[in-house]
Amino acid sequence: MALTITCPICGKRNGYEFRFGGEEKGPRPVEKDLTPQSWCDYVHMNNCVAGVQEEWWFHKDGCGSWFSIYRDTTTNYEVEKMEVANNEQA
Amino acid sequence: MNRLNALPTLQIDPSRKISFIYRNKQYYGVEGDTVATALYSNGIRIFARSLKYHRPRGIYSLDGECSNTCMEVDGIPNVRCENTLLKDGMIVKEQNVVGSLENDRMSFIDKIDWMMPAGFYYSTMHKPAKIWPIAMKQIRKVAGLGVLSPEFKMTGKYDEIFPTADVCVIGGGPAGMSAALEASDKGLRVILLESRSVLGGFFEYRSHEYKEGQSYHDRAKELSAQVEGAEKIRVFTNASMIGTYNNNLVTGFQIGGKNDSFDERYMEIRAISVIVATGCIERPLLFENNERPGIMQMGCALRMAHTYGLVPGDTAVFSIGHDLGIETAICLHDLGVKIACVADIRKSGQASKLVAQLTERNIPFLTGWVATKAHGKKHIKKVTLATLEGRQPTNYDCDLLVASAGLTPLTSGITVAKGTVKYDGHTGCFLPDKMPAKMYAAGRIMGFDDALSIESSGRLAGCRAALDCEACSTTELSDAKNQLDGLPDPAAGCKLVIAPVEGRKSFICFDEDTTIKNINQAIEKGFDVPELIKRFTSAGTGPGQGGIPGHNLPLYVAKYQGMSDVSIRSTNVRPPVIPTLIATYAGSNHSMFKRTPMDEMQRNDGGIFRNIGVWQRARYFSSDLSCKNEIENVRSNVGILDGSTLGKFRIFGPDAVKALERVFVSDISKIKEGRIKYSAMCNDDGCVIDDGVLIKQGENDYYFTTSTGRAGSTIEWIRYHTRYDDWDFHMVNLTDSMGVINLSGPNARKVLEKIVDIDMSNTAFGFSEYKEFQLDSTIPVRCMRLGFVGELSYELHVPSSYMKTVWLMLGEAGKEYNIQNFGVEAQNVLRMEKCHIILGQESEQRTNLLDVGLGFLWNRNKTEAKTVGAVALRQAENDQTRLKLVAFKMENKGRAPRDGALIVDKKVRGYICTARDSFTLKEGVGMALVEGDLSKNGTRLEIYEDECGDDRIYGEVVPMPLYDPKGIRMKM
Asked: Which string of b and e fits B856-876 if b means at least 16 CB within 10 Å?
């Protein structure tokens, strides 16, 4: 696996050590107002961005923490958050 | 055949013989030989018959650029013999022949090539459609090269390593070594890959002068001594790169030598920067019969003599487009080969020193001439040379033709990582253009020909890589640049695309038997892009991975189309760029599993073990796989089971309850100390994924168990579902540090009472209660009264290191009751009779908490906890279409169906989860998941088993549980 991921605790490591945890979708919604549709969207629907997306990873063969990174899905390169912000401004 | 034995460049030791079998006869090679050179030294000249036309093929590149030397070695077909070191006792066989290599009865196909134009496979034999299945069978008989025997078993040791380095240098020639030295001088850790068995590359086998008083070979030795002396350079020889990827990942494999612990090993190298110094291969010369045995490339002829001590012919003709050809002619002449003629395609530009040496030796030298046709059926006998315009055809007798249009960079290391190459009109080569991040090219791959330029470009690449690693100053970098700028630029290359011939038997791709005529046919059909022509004609799709046609195909297509230099487009290669054994990718046999603390004792007791998840567990304790004795002993006496594989966790901290409430469906805050709470976890779809028990050990401090299979991902699961909450809690996985003993049966209390000094009576320690105590005032035990198997039952959680001791104490105490082991299968039957579920057996991925009848665990009033699965459960609550778990008995005390059998009427209505012939109940019983309308008591179930034909067996839905409905026995 060519992918490398930067764990906030262990640093830049081989992608093999991590498990993918899906796109960043925000915290769990409050249950009161949920419809079956909106709940299903939260759990199952993804944006599938061709470009930079924020996503969750778990360092399974390391420190055991969950964290999010920015990754360009077209190149498989990790991107600094600063770069993302700059590109959005531009 | 006598070997040359006085050359300094030799890589063989003629005094050490190695025997091998070829065609059932014993032959000898010498140490250092490849299979191909050993065969050659025994007079073998034909090594293979080609894919389609069964043309004879011989040694051509000596580097595995084509399938010309593919043979069956030790049962493995399609082994490139010229890359395979000879080992004692190897069994070598020819392949793709009917008869022998010398007389292949299929060689008539060469004459009917007109029947097989490019793409005939796609365009003929399809109409009428009936023909195709018949034709296909015939084609499959003749298609392909080697055949793998169905009985073949791969042997050997395969390993894998995942090293890291600051700089990875691909290619151990002068440029690669210079780059590696430069980087290591700057304090960096370097990995150097060389596909041959010695470092030195382009310099290694050449005896000509590098500088006054020093040969190229000596220079190679000098550099390689420096590299081997450099502490920070890790050298891998016999190691080929097979892929490069982004983030500077380099993959490859290494072939092990005599003293290595592996036969082959896969390598995955992670480096900060990568230097590609893979040098050049040769561009084949296109003329009629350009692949007859006896025709070889310049480097091949020179290495045959200098590296392996084999004189490649008696009388040689040269048709070449590079100074290396002239050098080779001079060397072979000096070794006693008669050089009939050296025909240089280039009209000018030869090194004057080399030309003078030809003149000194009276070797006829022609410029602007080229070979147009090779003669001889099985081996070259003579060659026709002509001017580039095809005039003055002249025949020369020879048994060796050295033919090469020049050199061409081996750029796959760059292009597979999505770097690009661009055609360069000056050198006539595809040179690196856009490089991937932190990857640099060095040496001949950049077109350099001059020895000093090659080394200097290596040092520059080393500096660039060092800069990426912050170990090089910009001044050092510009010094290196200036040094290279002061040295000779790349020389003009030979531009000839094809000799003046029609091309019916001019092979552009040897592997796939693709001729120039085939390419013409494809272009005439409308294919215009080399990449598509490659697909249609299959040129470059063989084991050589485009080594032979890679450069010529785009050149020829451009020439045919009359395009200018700039738009000549190269074809692509993909990993693995070198054929790699699947065994090498697979690595060693990863049959790994965990053993419980009781493993050895249980094996001694006759336990029959099975893999369960990551563990091995005792499934049976006798050859009676129905486990009658084990089951009856638990029901009537007392049994002991090792349950150490259960997941065991501690969770504590101010927010521990919140975290548990998130993942468990129950209300955790209501758990009282000293009591056991059974609960379950769901996923966000409400599907039940795990169950276990929880115990409160203090304020915000809990101990809980999970099923065996989920132990590995429980912490991940809890952390995932609380990742936004910033809660303060900690978890410890105690699965391996705690063992579990399950003591079950009506006599369990009597056994336990003998070793425990607390009150074990039913009133003092009732069902579903929890106690902690010590054995012998030393061993801490966490004891739970559970009833999984439906009997009086204690679960003892003991530190792993004390497991054997406690087990032996129980065994001793239970002697008078004849305490017996029981295994996982007995437990499975016992709990099934009690209708206690095992997740994964009474559930599958789509089964939710309510389906399996565990809805009572779910506390629906804790919405603020946002319990995982609660929303989906609420939505599924009134869904009548879902499967329901039911218990059933077989009609007329019939036998139990097999697990997984289907419940049917006119369609599939459910399936059997677990069913057994119950010794306790004296009939076939089980549990099944069925559609809602079949779940009422008394419903008749029609059961379909695999291969039962029209026969059905029938059961009837009955109330749960099947055994001891009032639960008296487990509460006694």
From this structure: ebbbeebeebbbbbbbbbbbb
| pLDDT above 90 as % of chain B | 86
pLDDT on residue B246: 86
Contact B646, B736 (CB under 8 A): no
CATH superfamily name and code, A4-25+42-89: Folate-binding superfamily (3.30.2270.10)
Q: Write the residue in A26, A27, A66 that is nearest to B719 by C-beta.
A: A66
Q: At B547, which amino acid appears? A: G
Residues of chain B in contact with residue A74, where contact means CB-CB under 8 angstroms, are none
Span B671-687, average pLDDT: 96
Mean pLDDT of all residues in A26-45:
92
Interface of B with A in 673-692 (CB under 8 A): 684-685
Calculate how close chain A gets to B193, using CA atoms only, in Å.
19
Architecture of domain B156-286+405-590: 3-Layer(bba) Sandwich (3.50)
> Which class is B295-393 in CATH?
alpha beta
Q: Does B588 touch chain A (CB under 8 A)?
A: no
Question: Residue B627: what pLDDT?
Answer: 96
**pLDDT above 70 as % of chain B:** 100
CATH topology of domain B13-115: Ubiquitin-like (UB roll) (3.10.20)
pLDDT band per the 50, 70, 90 thresholds, residue B1: low
Complex ipTM: 0.94
**Could you give the C-alpha distances from B746 to B171, B630, B767, B827, B834, in angstroms and in order?**
73, 14, 13, 15, 15
Confidence at residue A83, expressed as pLDDT on a 0 to 100 scale: 65
Q: Which two tokens stand for residue B371?
A: 């070979």
Domain ranges across chain B: 13-115, 156-286+405-590, 295-393, 599-644+737-831, 647-733, 880-972
Return the residue in B244, B274, B682, B716 with the most chain A beta carbons within 10 A, the one to mutate for interface testing: B716
Mutation site, A25, A63, A66, interface B, largest B CB count within 10 A = A66
Radius of gyration of chain A from its Cα atoms, rounded to whole angstroms:
15
CATH architecture of B647-733: 2-Layer Sandwich (3.30)
